[in-house]
Amino acid sequence: MAPLARILMVEDVASDAELIERELRRAGLRCATRRVDTEADVRDALRTFDPDIVLSDHSLPGFTARDTLRLVHQETPQTPVIIVTGSLDEEIAAEYIKAGATDYVVKDHLERLGPAVQRALDLRRARDEQAQAEEARRQGEERFRALIEHGTDAIALLGADGAVLFLSQSGERLFGYRPSELVGRSAFELLHPHDVPRLRAVFDDLLGRPGTPATLELRLLQRDGAWREGEAVVVNRLAEPAVGAVVVNFRDVSERKQAEQALRDSEAQYRSLVEGVRDVIFALSPDGIIVSLNPAFEAITGAPPSEWLGKPFDQLVHPEDLPLALELFGRVVRGEPRPTAQFRIRTSSTADYRLTEFAATAQLRDDRLIGVLGIGRDVTERVLLEQQLRQAQKMEAVGRLAGGIAHDFNNILTAITGYADLLLEDLGPKDPRRQDAEEIHRAADRAAGLTRQLLAFSRQQVLQPRVVDVNKLVSELEKMLRRLLGEDVKLATALSPIVGRVRADPGQLEQVIMNLAVNARDAMPTGGKLTIETADVRIDGANAGDHYPAPPGDYVMLAVSDTGTGMDPETQAHLFEPFFTTKEKGKGTGLGLATVYGIVKQSGGFIWVSSTLGAGSTFKIYLPRVDAAAEPIAGAEASNRVPRGSETVLVAEDEAPVRAVARQALERYGYHVLEASSAEAALDLAERYSGTIHVLLTDVIMPGLSGRELAVRLAGRRPETRVIYMSGYTDDAITRHGVLEPGFVFVQKPFTPDTLARTVRDVLHGDAARRKRA
To answer: Rounded CA gap, 90 and 765, in Å?
Structure first.
């Protein structure tokens, strides 16, 4: 079981903190949390709670994430900090990363929080382990140095009978006697009785062999009666006039033996560390031959270290990356401190390579290179995740741009479509200008469709999610798909007999399947087979890495596979980008797969593609499974006739062309229309108008007061007035203004005069029905 992580949340909104805790639990993290929202509480929690990681909101009252970073760096600099906020632009996010933040997560995408926290915890754990290993190594070196620095030898000159003729001053430290106290005494008295025969035998033997040294270990008697381990080096110098004695070098090896044991322990610890780490630790000869590899090499490459010992290192490197490897070792030889480089190395599968980050250092002796030591870390998954993150950030930025363009475009299209409809009402069937007006209307419809695709890609369209039976939806689409694919493409389905349900907009999910089917058909110009598959899938800790960034949980998988031309890696890298297409000019907008991506992501799902040139492609969509009964899909309206009315409608819209077309459309259906260019002007007009205002038709987002605020204020003065909201903005924007709540009536721009008039009539009819029932 994973250890319990202590997580400090710097967050002033309790509900946001609960969401964060729920997300952490959903991500499978075992954690204890504490929430604080003041500087003093942050400082106290850092000292008393000792968090493993800190999650900080971008801005709190009187307190910011920069203050959090500052306090963490002061109190516990090793603690990672992740910024968790409702909104954060790229520039501020980059500044936080530069200031020391480990990562940042936007609250709208809390699914990233679990993986981000896990990565930060893993990073801290790795740093702690590295620091502990470094401290253990340092302590071992200090113990060894202390033993060496305090070692002492005693030099003694002995007569042929073993009597002490001379003893150096260091003898006092060794035996506890002053040298003068031992002169004249037999050296054998200073040995353990069991060791005396061994020294006497060596002594007698050396008397006949002058100049030949002999070494033996002995136990030495100290003045206090204690015994110490000693080593004696004995040389017969009796025949030398300058010496005239047997020279004995007594050395206290008690501490040396202790040091040797400590060194063995240190080496065992080092060996355990080298053999236990997940990084490759290697040694090369000066000419690049591999002389040492730790067991991690086999974990990364699948090949045992013995298989590569004695082989040139360059044979391990991918041929295209060999210049990178040679440059790295050139920098090592030139003496650059800890140079690093990334390149691919071979695995036991000759067609497979792993991207590895290497760091190396030169081994020198007398300024001469005697070898290279290095470490290599498998970064294949890390680099892949970084690429996925960059791609997601790029798609997010393009999505925000697309959403903004769509809003402005919707206002323009509302005017174009509205005026085209009004013009068509005035032109007779045989009027020569009618065809021009119809072409204008068709062009506006195509533009509106393009806008809807932009909104789908940017995940900002207004969805109508329902609980959907995916099998039933695919079955109902089969007939249409067969006509769409043509006779030369065979359609097959592999629908799991028991598959869960998902919450999604059925119309948008149909669009996903249709777009993928059209793409598959275009990839099979000479015919082929298209297969649609469904299944229940559980993502857990064991396979979560293969489905990043999808969190663990239960999903419904929808797969669309073809036997077409397939795609190369370069094409797959840009596949979901808007306006990217491999089709010839005029054959596609490049928004089909971007739309698919946006719909799937906005529905809370994930999409992956696997493809090989010449072997077809498979798109797999994972949508969260829900435990609820499928909901029926509402049918189309039976009648196309729009009833007329005579009631008063107050139109509040800051865009003059939209306001004008709404007024003209409603007036043609008999309504009395009041116009206001802002919420404030609408309130003033309502104050001065003496008659009944039956309906308020208001834009959601306007300068000054919003449409929601206008409706609330008007309700206090005219409670009888019904409200219809309209907007060219997106799902996210109008949700923040509280418009998509149950019971609210909403019209999405661009709208037609018929749609607007029907909505007004439906609202008034529903109001009348309620009054009748009352």
So the answer is: 49
With a CB cutoff of 8 Å and minimum separation 6, the contacts of 667 are 673
User: Residue for token digits 């090369």?
Assistant: 284
**Using CA atoms, how far apart are residues 703 and 681, in angstroms rounded to an integer?**
11
Q: Model-level pTM?
A: 0.39
pLDDT of residue 733: 44
CA distances from residue 197 to 114, 191, 637, 653 in whole angstroms, order as listed: 73, 10, 117, 115
Q: What's the maximum distance between 2 C-alpha atoms anywhere in the chain?
A: 143
Which segment of 79-83, 114-118, 274-278, 519-523 scores lowest on mean pLDDT? 274-278
Residue-wise pLDDT for 268-300, tens only, equals 776 766 666 778 888 889 888 999 888 888 888
Give residue 738's pLDDT: 42
Q: What angle do CA 539, 540, 546 make, to 5 degrees?
A: 65
Q: What one-character DSSP code corresponds to residue 654?
A: S
Burial of 124 (0-12, 13-18, 19+ CB in 10 A): middle
Q: What percent of the chain clears pLDDT 90, i.e. is strictly above it? A: 12
- Residue 593 Cα distances to 82, 161, 474, 612, 693, angstroms: 33, 102, 19, 18, 46
Spell out a b/e string for 667-678, using b for 16 or more CB atoms within 10 Å of the CB, else e: eebebbbbbbbb
Name the residue type at position 106. V
Helix or strand run (H / E) with residue 182: helix 179-182
Per-residue pLDDT, averaged over 366-385, amounts to: 84
**pLDDT per residue as tens digits for the range 181-206:** 888 898 888 888 888 888 888 888 88
Residues near 477 by Cβ (< 8 Å), separated by ≥ 6? 510, 513, 514
Listed residue (235, 250, 243, 244) closest to 171, CA to CA: 250
Query: What band does 420 get if pLDDT is binned at 50, 70 and 90?
Result: confident
Spatial CA neighbour of 227 closest among 253, 258, 247? 253
In the structure encoding, which two tokens stand for residue 361, read together? 């250092």
pLDDT range class, residue 394, cuts 50, 70, 90: low
DSSP β-bridge partners for residue 719:
none
Q: Report the C-alpha gap between 577 and 401 in whole angstroms.
A: 13
Q: Cβ atoms within 10 A of the Cβ of 255, count?
A: 17
- Strand 164-167 to 489-495 pairing: unpaired
Nearest-angstrom CA–CA distance, 192 and 218: 7
Distance from C-alpha of 550 to C-alpha of 128, rounded to nearest angstrom:
29
- CA dihedral angle for residue 12, residue 13, residue 19, residue 21, rounded to 10 degrees: 30
